[in-house]
Amino acid sequence: MPVGLFRVCLLVITAIVNHPLFFPKENGTVPENTEEIIQKMKEREESLRLEQLRLEQEIADQEATQKALEKAAVVVEESKEEKVRWDMWTALSMVIFLLIELWRQDFQEGNWQDIGGEEDDMAVLGKAFKGVALPDKAVLASFYEKRILGTTGDMARMREMVEGFADDLLEALRSICNRDADMEVEDCMGVGSMYENWRVRKPFVCDLIVPFAPPEPYCFRCQTWCSGDSFPPDEQGYGTIKVCRADEDETGCICDKTKLGEDMLCLLHSQVSSTRPSSEMEDLLCFKNTQYLDADQVMKWFQIAVTKAWNRISHKYEFDLSFSLLDSPGALKIKFKSGKSIAFNLTPVVQYENSDVYFISHFPRSSLAADVPSNTHWFLTFAVYERRFIQLVSKTLPANACHVSCLQILSFLHGKQCSLTGPSGLTNYHLKTVLLHLLQARPSQDWAPEKLEARLQDMLKFLEKCLHEKKLYHFFIGNGKVPAELGFPIIFQRAEPLNLFRPFVLRRDIYRKMVDTFHEMLRNMSALINEYTVHIPLAHTNGIRKEPL
């Protein structure tokens, strides 16, 4: 108890002593210090306010930055989605393009030369020549028997005679040639209308091609417009022939493709074998300062060789042999003492690889290669395959089929019209190409002999359509439906179709002349046929409807 009272008293005394009112002198400075403290507090408050504003600004900036980042992320996401959508559209467009390309190739392979049937909508002829009608079947049959068959009976005998003489001439040519330096000549082959049995106009001319090859150790390296190298459009259908050594490219050496230093030597090829004098290449019938075969040089060599060969065997024959045409270097004429003559063409060619496609130096009596780009460009001929195709198709047609008759009649009419109005750009090769397309498109039963009138009408319609569109595609080039039995090179089947009428697109004068000649032929058709047709009683033609074109 006393201890507790003592603690209370000590606490009261301490509180009294420490109270500020009991010591006014010692605490007199308190009021002055209070203003200073208040001023400092105001300054501190201001600084805190400023700091708060700065922090708020930083927070606002951070929020704005965050919003900008979020917006950018949204834009990026949208762009990604847009890019995905664009990629999808691009992919879809590519798929559509590929489908169109595949359809185009299928169209070219299946219907690349559009051929309509008897009920097609090609009515150009009907609109332009409503009054033109083909002669009836009886008149056509009489015309064919009297004018065509009556003049083609000597073809087989003439072919046999020309081939026998050509073989003898080429054998003599081989005997006078230097096998170590001159070109090697092979056996000749007959091509064209005389060997496809549809030539009708006299004089009959046999076309023979003679393959030749260079002497050892040289060989020919052939390049075509569809072999991968870039050829301009006006050189489609052409190729070049390079004269090389047989082992030149087998080692894969690059010494002839790069410039070696003067102190460097190829260990595979000596300097003598790698350099070829210009005179040596000219002796190999190459164009000056090149390794490419010159068509003019080849024809000059061939003419000289044929002349020497004839001088060696001329004593065995009782006729004369001469070159008949200056513009056809291979055109030869046999002149008998009786005054009669036989003309034939002997043209040197180069075989393309191991096929029956040939590079031909000159086309006799033809405008197919009238504008050759240069002497080193050779036109490709598919004449051997054309003959084989006609023979192959003929085996599937009815007896006495009318396909050859159609071509003979059309060729005769065209030739007669050209004799009246002058030559045009349209050739017998164009007419044969039309027939080849129709032979592939129509079933075999459509070529029965009694359907001659209808098939002749089809050929005229098809030709009119091609003239109207300025498009007549080569039968073999770009045609994926060539029979496999022919063994036709696949590289030409996969090539772009070759338009035989392309040269006439830019030469409007020739095109106009060609169209006018065709139209005149249609107008004069009945007159031309009746001129060579015996009289047919009216009773034979009654009941036969003339089908207008």
From TrEMBL:
One of its GO terms (cellular component) is nuclear outer membrane. Enhances Ca(2+)-mediated inhibition of inositol 1,4,5-triphosphate receptor (ITPR) Ca(2+) release. Its main location: membrane. The keyword Amino-acid biosynthesis does not apply. Pfam families: Mab-21_C (PF20266). This is Inositol 1,4,5-trisphosphate receptor-interacting protein. Residues 1-20 form the signal peptide. Residues 38-72 form a coiled coil. It is a single-pass type I membrane protein. The gene is Itprip. It is found in: Cell membrane; Nucleus outer membrane. One of its GO terms (molecular function) is protein kinase inhibitor activity. It comes from the Eukaryota. Residues 404-477 form the Mab-21-like HhH/H2TH-like domain. Keywords: Cell membrane, Coiled coil, Glycoprotein, Membrane, Nucleus, Signal, Transmembrane, Transmembrane helix. InterPro entries: ITPRIP-like, Mab-21_HhH/H2TH-like, MAB21L/cGLR. Belongs to the ITPRIP family.
